[in-house]
Amino acid sequence: MSNHLFDALFAQGVDETRPFITVSDGKGGDARTLSFSDIRRMSLRMARALARMGARPGDRICVQVRKSPEALALYLACLAGGYVFQPLNMAYTAEEVRYFVRDAKPRILIVDPERKEALTDLAEETGAKLLTLRGDWRGSFFMLQMVQPENFEPVACDAQAPAAMLYTSGTTGRPKGAVLSHGNLLSNARDLVSVWDFTENDVLIHALPIHHAHGLFVAINVPLLSGARLIWHERFDANAIVADLPRASVLMGVPTFYARLLKTPAHRLRRAAANMRLFISGSAPLSPALHAAFEEATGHAIVERYGMTETGMIASLPLNGARKPGSVGFALPSVSLRIVDRETGEPLPQGETGMVEVKGPNVFSGYWQQPEKTDEAFREDGWFITGDLGRIDDQGYLHLVGRAKDLIITGGLNVYPAEVEAVLDSLPGVAEAAVVGIPDAEWGEKVCAIVAPDGSRRLDEKGLIAALKERLAGYKVPKRVVFVDALPRNAMGKVMKDSLRDMLLS
Ligand code: AMP
User: Fold this and answer.
1) pLDDT the model gives residue 397
2) Whether residue 495 has its Cβ less than 6 Å from ligand 1
């Protein structure tokens, strides 16, 4: 038997000496280049190094390191060795890391050298071996892999074998580890290669973090599988990205990337983007206003896609066909999607808003050691309940209207924050806006808006409410508008609505 995912990722048939990763120097040039063969060989040495340290197939390898080609090779090493890659955001404090390590009980913990001291006692407590890795040829794990032979045979893994465990954003309750299998990841990557027409001629700008499904699976598995090349940015810097656009063909980003790119002088952005094939956005809603502004500035209509940790990617706007702003398009080829009544689970007629549910080879099998949470997440007949609310329009496009837990019920009527946010975003003077419900004696919940002005004009609460009344049914219009400099967002660009609710209640 072969190794389901690793073997497929390196079977693209391109010349192995071709560059796979070019680390950008931030000015449109190269700082460092690694070929497909360099990355494959490094990952095999790393897989052997992990085995030397006592890792066995199925063991978790917990990793909290900076983004680097070495960190990417470590992910591939886990696939090759049949280990479960457990990446953690570098932003987590040592205190937060404790939870994840105690929960996952990894055999090996690989951290940035700066983190080592703070985590030594945790490693002792849990019995995990502690090593370090940094992209600039530093760290004990880097040294260990350097001296390994490269003849490691990828361990036999079938489609069900666990490949990675990613903790979900955990906006409610404690974070849960979603276990993704080789088959989940491969089927999803194949779907995306096909709907986005990826080929070995593509050059993808990779500026996303790699502790999350977007940067790790979408932006790595898809180019690897198709033999495309990566231009690697450790973080998003609009100037550095614009400098690389002329030699790239695809950018994958979160909406914040696009909002920041738009701050570049219009003629420079337009010229830099002239030969791009595709701009993709996901992980958080792309407002129709931002979609329109980017198209006006560059001539490119962004392709929005929708997915989540537990399912990988679910839907995407089409390459050929209308790229409807505010919609996430159609289900991917292997994914089935339906809209049901949130309470009863009964499928709803087309056009009605309800819970989005999915089924397919992309859907994970469950949360790590939390069978009750896993049961709650699935219907009896196997549909996964995403927690997102949406509707399918008469042309079959999926429109998301928010998370079920963000739905506002005011005076018995449903208000979908995304609808009110889209109207607010389109008003002059508004850079971005979020809408939340807060408990209210009279209404049950009261609609409130938090607005970040763009500085182009003076905004006040009364004026905005009056403008909204002209465009929305009365019950949807916020009763209160609060101004902030910028909306609080997490690493993936998602607005942290819980913090906004807390702010309004305090
Ligand atoms: P995560 O598991 O961290 O990737 O978060 C998944 C959630 O992000 C989904 O359930 C959606 O609520 C949200 N999300 C992802 N992509 C989109 C999108 N294109 N538009 C709106 N929400 C999105």
Assistant:
1) 98
2) no
